[in-house]
Amino acid sequence: MSRKRWVVSKCDKDHAATIAENCGIEPFAAYLLCARGMTDEFEIESFLFDTDLIDPFTLPDMDKACERINLALDNGEKITVFGDYDADGVTSTALLYSFLSSFGGNVDYYIPDRTGEGYGMNCGAIDALKERGTDLIVTVDNGISAIEEIEYARSLGIDVVVTDHHKAGDVLPEAVAVVDPHRQDSCCEFNEWAGVGVTFKLISALDESEGYELLEKYADIIALGTIADIVSLKGENRILVRSGVAFINLAISNGTLRKGLKALLDESASTGPVDASSLAFRIGPRINAAGRMGSAERALKLLLTEDATEAKAIAEEISQANAARQETESAITEAAIRIIEENPQIKYKRVIVVSGEDWHQGVIGIVASRLVERYGKPCIVISENGDVAKGSGRSIDGFSLYDALTYCKDSLVQYGGHVLAAGLSVEKGKIEKFRNKINEYAAERERAVAELVIDCKLNPASINLDMISSVEQLAPFGADNPQPVFGLYNMEITALQPVGNGKHMRMTLQKNGYSLSAIMFSVSSESFPFCESDKVDLAVRLSVGEYMGKAKVNVQVKDIKFSALDDEAVIMSEKDYEDFSSGEELSDEVIERINVSRELCGDIYRFMRVNNKWHYSAEVLCYRLGLSAENIVNCRIALDVLTELGIINFNDGCYSLPSENVKNPIDNSRIFLRALNLKN
Q: What angle do CA 89, 90, 94 make, to 5 degrees?
């Protein structure tokens, strides 16, 4: 995992106390809201208690969309809902199809195949819909960039109504209506809906209502699509998700839950109340897996079926697809990491662009997310299949992937997406040109650093169940409103215990005589670099668990670092190493900080002889050697020098000594001489 900058939020405690009193909320909840920048009482009350839905007719072209769809309903025209293969597209399709069917509409649906057709409308699909007798296409979660395809549909006598939530370009498609809150001429007070949210506004307009009665019928799938698409959980999205979570839990208790959702919850072994996290990590990935690994229509049928037996069968099939997705994702992630680690010209660029032959296009977006987590920088994963390769990218705050791809548009066949996630097509022979171009863009901007926001520092003695109750007032959690993360600083590790067959690490921590237990998931004892008696800082999340029939506080560790090492110095030193290794022109300040001595190389070699092998970070190595964080760059270069000379080996992320001692003068290292000559 890459090193993140820890940023502790600031809060005026006195102002928070005033807000708590005036708004009638728990003081700790008020503190958290203020720490997140909510200092206006009206804004806070709206965030916590608002139930007002936005007038759907404030969206551009909504009146035109309703007029054309109503005409089709009145005349019995064939309406096709043209969706997308991800969870947002599937729920959007299910929502509009169900609504139009309830009015007796002559309606069907079409979801393109991810591998064979790709995202959005295509002329082959339009030909097929013409043969099926379609008179009107209504897009959901796509269409804003389908300029040529919609023109082609018009030439065949098929009208198109676009509903989308992606960014609109300079030119809008020539459709009957283009309903997209991101249109430049949109005056809507909110524009962060997922595709299913825009679809909800459409059916509300068709229903000639604000949408409250529709939420009583469809809140479950609206919430699922909204959460799965990782859009902001502020504004109306918060209302939609809160309504959906309540709807689902009520339906579970009275036995009226949608058959498909019940089957998926059963398959995921979900117990207890459902929350936004349950939908995000248990249900959403399974819906997505159907489109990634096969046909998204199976997921759509699952949401539409009223037959419990059919629902169970499809849920099992989709869960198997999800398991296959996980295996495929892991294999491609490992392959991508191998390529990156073996190619410094890829690894040390500001934007990682990695490609492979026939990588499954359904999972490369997830692989990009895994690489971002590992390397802490924007990553684009490209599948080479034929003359035109397809890629998917993920980014970090501070670097707009969409803007970067726009800069590179002359090198691309097609692109689209958002600030933090985007897709693209590029000619196979131009991948290297694209890699250089996007890094040219990145080099002209300040280097973005992945951050971990700490909502507030905690005294471990203050952690209790009442605190967690206050935290829950901010739910539902998701994008733009994440579950709070708390900082525990200068904690001493007093005990370590591997749990879950060695897959997780439980630790006992102590400070000022107070002790607590915490768990860090997905970290084995071999990969855990900390020892008993180490003083560490921890970023944790708190939740309520149960032990021997009693409620207790669970402490989950999200990140951990040495208390003694300065955060900014660690990040600066890591940047220095990347600049040195990438061949970038170094500033005088960076050159001054690089000081790789013979003595340091000797110290590291002797340390290696004592420890036999080393598979932790240079940050940990610095700490164990008693060096300051500024020396991370020098430790990393020294490791490269010793590896270049064959004095130590480096394989699969692990440094080790060769079977026989190797004597090779340090002056034979090109890396050492380059570092030595920087100041000359």
A: 115
